[in-house]
Automatic annotation (TrEMBL):
Protein name, per record: Peptidase M14 domain-containing protein
Family matches, as PROSITE patterns: PEPTIDASE_M14 (PS52035), PROKAR_LIPOPROTEIN (PS51257)
Cofactor(s) listed in the protein's UniProt record: Zn(2+)
Similarity field: Belongs to the peptidase M14 family.
InterPro entries membership: Cytosolic_carboxypeptidase, Peptidase_M14
Alphabetized CDD domains for the sequence: M14_Nna1-like
Organism, as annotated: Antarcticibacterium flavum
Superkingdom of the organism of origin: Bacteria
Family annotation (Pfam families): Peptidase_M14
Domain named Peptidase M14: residues: 176-421
Length: 421
């Protein structure tokens, strides 16, 4: 309690320097360096304790729902509520994924202070919702991001929100809450189409189904594979994947022709345990699944590896294209070294350039990975194992949702055209 009070006065002091802003930096874009192999053997994770919390003053909070985390909440004084979100285990990327519900017996104004463990920065612009389904961004004038300089680096240790609460529950969340049940609803609807079938490819560490959709009426000689949500909070990547898949499943001339020639296999939620438990990045084995495509220590990666191998063997098929949807600070394409030739050389550069032509003044960052043959990530695994022309498709956390959808649709349209040529 004492610690929280001290932390809070520090936060209030730093409010003097506060600027209302999103958390973009202006430094030169470098992208991630070469991805290093790490040990992916299972380690313990911290679950969050779920409950309804009586905070006093007639104010209540709850984290009894799937997706995102609330690991502590306390009234600091009559009007300030401090929340804490902690990761499932460490070391981990800075992606504090918080969500909780608040209500009060009487309508009142409160100040919410979102805090994280030491050295973790605030990342996600808070969103609010009255139903847990439709979220809107909190107005920037009600949001203050604390900034302080530590060893010449700008840190953003907390964010403060002014908010009215009442007997009507309000949801506060880092990103839109899209959990396994939302995904199930989407895949159920899609699989009503006669050319889409849904099946369970295997199970997560917690025993949740890892679902795969098969889209198409071809004989599996030619296939594409699609993944999303290896990393639980990466909701914008998921939204782009959805638009991409809906376009491949549409009634357009190209989509109909495409489905006669190619089958698309999509794993929309690779990490269902992480998604529902609100993990910042890892699966229930405490591992970043996108570092486990060489050693396959985790069930989620093994399920997809075995499924793809089976499909290739059964019909002597080929995977021509592989895409893995993610989110990060901005829109990025991570590609394979263009000197390396897969099953359709030049496909990914052509796809990026064709997609770009549809958007004025849009210059996404493109970074090829060094062609070392390492298979740490899904993209490198599908390229070096199956020859699939592979792409890691990163969408910015704050990219407008309208643009995310449009870009996912255009990417699918261009891909279908290129693969039909
Ligand atoms: Zn990611």
């Amino acid at each position: 309690m004492l610690n929280l009070k001290i932390n809070h006065s520090l936060i209030l002091l730093s409010l003097v320097l506060v600027v209302a802003t999103s958390c973009k930096t202006n430094k030169q874009w470098e992208g991630q360096g070469e991805i290093q192999k790490v040990n992916t053997e299972t380690v313990p994770v911290q679950r969050q304790y779920r409950d309804i919390f009586n905070l006093g003053n007639g104010i209540y909070a709850s984290n009894e729902f799937d997706g995102a985390r609330l690991n502590g909440i306390v009234m600091v004084n009559d009007t300030i509520i401090s929340t804490l979100s902690t990761p499932e285990n460490t070391p981990i990327n800075t992606s504090p994924w918080y969500a909780f519900k608040l209500w009060s017996e009487e309508e009142q104004k409160v100040t919410l202070s979102l805090t994280y463990p030491e050295n973790i920065n605030h990342r996600y612009h808070p969103k609010i919702s009255s139903d847990g389904i439709n979220f809107v961004e909190i107005d920037s004038s009600e949001l203050f991001i604390a900034k302080k300089t530590v060893e010449e680096k700008i840190k953003t240790p907390s964010a403060t929100i002014r908010l009215s609460i009442s007997p009507d529950t309000v949801w506060i969340s880092a990103q839109e809450l899209i959990t396994t049940s939302d995904n199930k609803q989407w895949t159920n609807e899609l699989s009503l189409k006669p050319f889409i079938t849904k099946s369970k490819a295997g199970e997560s560490r917690e025993g949740k189904p890892i679902e795969v959709l098969r889209i198409g009426e071809s004989d599996d000689k030619a296939m594409i594979f699609v993944l999303s949500r290896q990393h639980p909070p990466e909701v914008t990547g998921y939204l782009a994947m959805k638009a991409f898949i809906e376009t491949i499943s549409s009634n357009s001339e190209d989509a109909i022709a495409f489905r006669k020639k190619y089958n698309t296999y999509v794993f929309p939620l690779v990490n269902p345990d992480g998604v529902d438990n609100g993990h910042w990045r890892h699966n229930m084995g405490g591992i970043d699944l996108n570092r486990d495509w060489e050693d396959f220590n985790q069930p989620e990666t093994r399920v997809i590896r075995d499924f793809a191998n089976k499909k290739v063997k059964e019909n002597n098929g080929k995977i021509y294209f592989f895409v893995d949807f993610h989110s990060t600070w901005q829109d990025i394409y991570y590609t394979i070294d263009p000197e390396q030739k897969g099953n359709m050389p030049g496909l990914v550069p052509a796809l990026i350039s064709e997609t770009g032509k549809e958007f004025e003044n849009y210059n996404p960052n493109v970074k090829p990975s060094p062609g070392t043959g390492k298979r740490v990530t899904s993209t490198s695994y599908f390229f070096y194992e199956h020859g699939a022309e592979s792409l890691t498709y990163e969408i910015g956390d704050n990219t407008s949702r309208e643009f995310v959808k449009k870009k996912g649709e255009v990417t699918a349209e261009k891909l279908m055209k290129l693969l039909l040529e």
